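Task card 7
Instruction: Convert sequence to C-alpha cells.
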Amino acid sequence: MSTSVVIVGGGVAGVGTAAALRSRGFDGDVTLVDPGEFPYDRPPLSKDFLAGKRTLEQIALQQPSWYDDQRIRLINRTTVVALRAAEGKLELSDGRVLSADRVVLATGAAAARPPVQGADSPRVHVLRTAEDAARLRAALVPGARILIVGAGLIGAESASTAVRLGCEVTLVDPVAVPLAAALGHDLAHWVHGLHARHGVRTLQTVVESFTDRGEAGIEAHLAGGEPARTFDAVLLGVGMVPHTALAEQAGLEVDRGVVVDSGQVTSNPAVLAVGDSARTRLADGTLPPRAEHWEAAQTDGARAAAALLGTPGPAAAAPWFWTDRHGHHIEGVGHMASATRTVVRGSFDDPSFTVFGLDDGYVVAAAAVDDSGAVRAARRMIDRRVPADPDQLSDLSVNLRALLRN
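Output:
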C-alpha cells in the first residue's frame, strides 16, 4: 500500500480524493498542493459569489481546521511545475521538491477563449476562478451593457445574476435551444425562455469579432446580418480546456484530457487523474467526452481513493447535474437523449414539475424544475432499473417512493 500521496490541485476532485482517503482508513501522508489561498467551490462563482452575496471564505470547500484534523498537509499559493513520475518527485514553483509513492492529478481546466479577433480586450472576461469573478463583478453595475457569449450553465447562470444586479444583458448562442440533450427539447425550451421572461435579450448567432472603442465600450460584430452592438463588458462562457501540460510533460497518455481507466489510473500506474482534466477510457476502448460536472469530480475522487487503497470503488450511478437561474433550481439525471418518450409530472405552468424520459418501460432520465425529490426518486429508478408505469409517473397523487418499493 502507498505510504504517501500528493494531490495536485484542490478543487472538488482534489479535496474529495483527500477526504475519501481518510474516510476509507488511509493512514499515510497526504499532501494537497493548491495555487490559491485555499480550495473553494466553483458553482457559486456565477451566482452568489458573483453577486457579492458570499465571500471567498464562505465558499471554501473545507474550513482551515479540517486539513489539520484530517492530517492533510495543505501547500497553498504554489503550483507543481514538473512531475518526475519515474522518481516519484514533484517540483514546486517555489523551488521545493516533494516525494510521493503515488500522485493524483486534479489539475482542472481553464476557461476556453475562442480565437476571435479582439477577444484579448480587457473588457472581455472569462469565469473560472474567484479572481475572474471579482473582476467581472466590478463591471456588473446597474445599467451596464453586458454581452454573454454562450448559453450553457456558466453563461446562463451569469446572465441571471447580471440582470438581477440591474444590468442590460444580451445572451448569444448558436444553438436555438441550449441543453436540449440534457433536459429534453420541451423543458430546455422552457428553461431557455426564462431569460426573456426576466429581461435578458437572447440571440441565436455567433460573435465574429470584437472592436474595443475605448470609453465608448466594446463593439461586438455578430454573424447572420445582426447589426454590430456596443457593450460595456463581455463574458465568454464557451466551455473549458483541460490542464494537461503537467501530464504531457510527464509522458502520460493525453487525448483532450488525461486518459484514465475505470479506477482513475493513468498510463503510468503511479499516477492517477481526477476531475475536469480526466477522460475515462471505457472497457471497449472508446473515449467518451470528459465529465465536467461537480458530482462527477467528487465521484472521481472516491474512485481514486479506492484504487489507491486497493478496495472496491463506489457503485456506478446515473449522472446528475444542477443549475440555478432566475430564481429556479433545475436538476437533471440520466441520459435524456436515450429516451424514446417523455412523461410530464405536473404542468409547465406549475411552480414545480418534472419530465421523465423512458425507454422500453424503464426510466432512463429525468429533469425537474424546483423538484429535487422527484429527481432523487428517478435516480433510484434508473440505478435499480425499476419498471415504470407512465400513468403512475404523471399522476401527482402517486408517491414516487411507493413506486420504488413496488
